Amino acid sequence: MPLKITNGQLPEGWVEKKFGEIALLNRGHNPPKSKFIHQPKKGYVRFYQIRDGKSDNYEVYVPDTPQLHKVEPDDILMVAYRHIGRVFRGASGAFNVALCKITNKDRSILDDDYLFYIIPTEFVRGELMKQAERSLIPSMSVKHLAEIKIPVPPLSEQKRIVAILNEAFEGIDRAIANTEKNLTNARQLFESYLNAIFTQKGDGWEEKKIEDVCESIIDCVNKTAPVIDEPSPFKMIRTTNVRGGYVNLDSVRYVTEETYRQWTRRQIPKRGDVLLTREAPMGEVGMLLTNDHVFLGQRIVSYRTDSSKLDNRFLLYAFQSNGLQSQIKAFASGSTVQHMRVPDTKILRIAVPSLSIQRQVVQKLDTLLFQTQRLEAIYRQKLSALNELKQSILQRAFTGELTADTANQATKAAKEVVAA
């Protein structure tokens, strides 16, 4: 019979321990970005960072100095900023301040994998988020983590739980990997079609300087606008708001009307303008689809097309093609953070057919994009369901409800999610 926590009571043989009693906790250190390199080198170590709540998806190495906070393969790295509670393991190296290293103190008391599996559950992550959500930007403290209590069964029971979880998650993780692959393939199909159009072109396409087919190309004011804490009708668009063809205003900073008027004295942004980021990151593009009072934050350029020469959605798609992206990268300067100079944003070259052909291209790409986004939404729903399934199993594991048949049930449930 499985052990089970009822009415807050631990099963016989289980004990409650503070996290700080069973693990060593250590936040990371941020060396200067000027020291980053992207290839292994003697005297350098791998440096783990966070992007979008996950371990970094690009390799960075930093000089091996005493100031670095080191990590070994047996250690657990937990995200301690924004997406708190996500965990991963890596090779030896160092890690930044957005991560917390968790090291098992005594393997005769606590199994490494048991510790790894319990962190993303309500017992740990749930408690951390309760405190973090009170802050404007979610972040956790080591002091708070050390005080969190977790259920610890006898070592033999820990190993039984881990064995069942490993088997259960094998099928779920395989389903997640296949779904993520399908998600990537859907996006790549659209990108392949888009690049084929702008590479193959056709009769009547003429290469022109981008400023010759635009009504205006406006850079942002070259300083940061003073923001206010409370929401207002006047919103600042930052580079983080410009992604993948869209300008997302879900997370913006606010200013006073006076600041808004000062920062829009060159031009007031309007619906249909195409925005390009010059830095952090360089080359992201999006179209403004709002009539709100918005203005450009730093490192953003606005393109307003001459409608007699250039369709604005044609320009949006052209910016996403390899041809223009390659030009943008060729103009990049800066040894650490690459950026594009304002004068270069006006001399990019774009191949332009007649307006009628531009509109045909846009219609085809709009249709394919709609189909791609529909597929992506389906795959994301499946990924969400699969991750919820994992969380459900984890929660059962640490309340003593796992049975020998859990793995088979999990595999069957994962297949049903994928087939739906």
Helix content: 25-40%
Quick one: overall form? Answer: globular
Q: How many β strands by DSSP?
A: 23
Order of neighbouring strands in the sheet with most strands: 14-22-19-20-17-16
What profile does the largest beta sheet have? Answer: 6 strands, mixed
Short account of what is shown:
With 420 residues, the protein is an alpha+beta fold. Helices cover 38% and strands 21% of the residues. It contains 11 helices and 23 strands.
Give the arrangement of secondary structure elements.
Layout: E1 15-18, H1 19-22, E2 23-27, E3 44-48, E4 50-51, E5 54-55, E6 61-63, E7 70-71, E8 76-79, E9 87-88, E10 93-95, E11 99-104, H2 112-118, H3 122-132, H4 142-147, E12 149-152, H5 155-200, E13 206-209, E14 214-219, E15 234-237, E16 242-243, E17 245-247, E18 253-255, H6 257-263, E19 274-278, E20 282-287, E21 293-296, E22 300-305, H7 312-320, H8 322-330, H9 342-345, E23 349-352, H10 355-397, H11 406-419
Parallel strand pairs: 3-10, 15-21, 17-20
Antiparallel strand pairs: 1-12, 2-11, 3-6, 4-5, 7-10, 8-9, 8-11, 13-23, 14-22, 15-18, 16-17, 19-20, 19-22
Helix pairs in contact: 5-10, 5-11, 10-11
